[in-house]
Amino acid sequence: MGVVVLVTGVARHLGARFVAELRRRPGVDLVVGVDVQPPKQSAEEPAGPLAPYRFHQLDLRRPAVARVIAEHRVDTVVHLSVSATGLGSTHRSAVKESNVIGTMQLLGACQKAPGVRRLVVKSTTGVYGSAPRDPAVFSERMQPKDQPGSGFAKDASEVEGYVRGFARRRPDVAVTVLRFANIVGPQADTPLSEYFALPVLPTVLGYDPRLQFVHEDDAVAVLCRAAAEPEPGTANTGTFNVAGEGVLLLSQCARRLGRPTLPLLLPAVSWIAGLARQTRLVDVSPEQLRLLTHGRVVDTTRLRETFGYRPAFSTPEAFADFAAAQGPGLLPPERLAAATDRLAGLLGPDRAAVTPAVPNRPRRPRS
């Protein structure tokens, strides 16, 4: 008998893509999707043999998920519904309940299901926070200088705590926590992608944070590898940072998009962010504002050497693919790049601020 996989959060773009890829994988007998809203119907069904798919519309905060796990004899659970935004509600308390209470209900159902053998949880590098006293690079064993006090990062931190408790109670279950950097791609639907879609990007005066990204193709590939048995010489249990190699400064991101920046004092940017949230123009949360002030970089050595996966897209390549799908900015990126190169030449190599070069390498074919 093959694997039966239950996936939460299938109404979102990443969940839908993961389900479509999972159904193509050999050895998967059935994929069960769970979400509070039905997923959007895709324009065309993927070609080739596909594993059957069943969808259950339910709220993870209710105990009904235990019945679904028992009904389909699920042995692998992939939890993707921990998110910065909610479906059908933008109220912060509802999002927190869905993230934390929903995870508690799911873990309780998994604990009572003797057939569950593998659990994969999507988390975020936001659990490290963003603070001026942070180390240059975070590894999985490091603790943040300032614990996240609110928002999605605090939800993810609490979720990881409950997952660690579950792992102690069910040592027979292989548990994987994936801390993703900001996911980008042609169809990215994250709050940060909404920020980059603004015609003018408000920034904090005097700060140019370092950012990391992971392409949605790599995110799906990592999830598929985590949901399967580990390949020889690798291990896919534990906690892993997931990000493309290299970094980008926020100013470099703006130039690649052709978006002018508007540097403002931090109180002014905070006021604009609050106004944008109230008018639902864009959801720039306080934690995202801290990221856009202090930045965050994580170490991905364990992802490459232990997990056995090297992202096909570096951080600059992932952002370039995202930028290519965006509308043209007010300033042509080519002219901005040419002007920046001329300025760097005038300043000289010692004063030109650049990020570490990332060597080009052939991309792996997309699955």
From TrEMBL:
<dbReference type="InterPro" id="IPR001509">
    <property type="entry name" value="Epimerase_deHydtase"/>
</dbReference>
<feature type="domain" description="NAD-dependent epimerase/dehydratase">
    <location>
        <begin position="5"/>
        <end position="243"/>
    </location>
</feature>
<dbReference type="InterPro" id="IPR036291">
    <property type="entry name" value="NAD(P)-bd_dom_sf"/>
</dbReference>
<dbReference type="InterPro" id="IPR050177">
    <property type="entry name" value="Lipid_A_modif_metabolic_enz"/>
</dbReference>
<protein>
    <submittedName>
        <fullName>NAD-dependent epimerase/dehydratase family protein</fullName>
    </submittedName>
</protein>
<dbReference type="Pfam" id="PF01370">
    <property type="entry name" value="Epimerase"/>
</dbReference>
